[in-house]
Predict the structure.
Amino acid sequence: MSIKIFLADDHKIVRDGLRSLLEKQPDMEVVAEAEDGRTTVRQVQKLLPDVVIMDISMHDLNGIEATRQIIAKSPRIKVLALSMHSDKRFIAGILSAGASGYLIKDSTFKELINAIRAVVSDQIYLSPRIAGIVTEDYVNYLTATDSSASSILTVREREILQLLAEGKTTKQVASQLHVSVKTIETHRHRIMDKLGIYSIAELTKYAVREGLTSL
């Protein structure tokens, strides 16, 4: 069965080029095309293609909003963004709208074919340059919203939490770290207050989840 493809781009020369190349693939068929987002949404709802190759910068209704409307009505349709933009705002915008992939227009035709096959197989496809931007943005997001033990607790507190989670008593921890029992008790109360956890059993579960111990 052929993969049915819809082309959405405001440049006819781009649509013509894509159609010519795609129709040479034995398992792909271009069912229709449009030059603006609103026509794209309307036609896609009628034709129900497998994949929409979507430009972002189109008049009347841009590719991001068109993608959002298509996915809202037909979640099974895959949208593959093909854009000249590598700005993270455009990438985040269309991916959050429901697109399954993002390619820059200077990508090779072979990469486009790979991307189409990937999204049809329910995979996410990002061209290498885009993948780097998305990964960097995600890492920055995680850093900004980090609530892991490494960001909440001090080195000493993590050390004490591990020992407590591994079943050592307050006295044993104090002896091993060469400090007083009172010092360990103070640390334990501080750890509990920071984490909002007030039992050793729950502290142990937390330590395991955070990778502080393999118990």
User: Anything to note?
Assistant: Strands lie at 3-8, 28-34, 51-54, 78-83, 101-104, 125-126. The chain has two domains: 3-143, 149-209. The longest strand covers residues 28-34. Residues 149-209 form a domain with the Arc Repressor Mutant, subunit A fold (CATH 1.10.10.10).
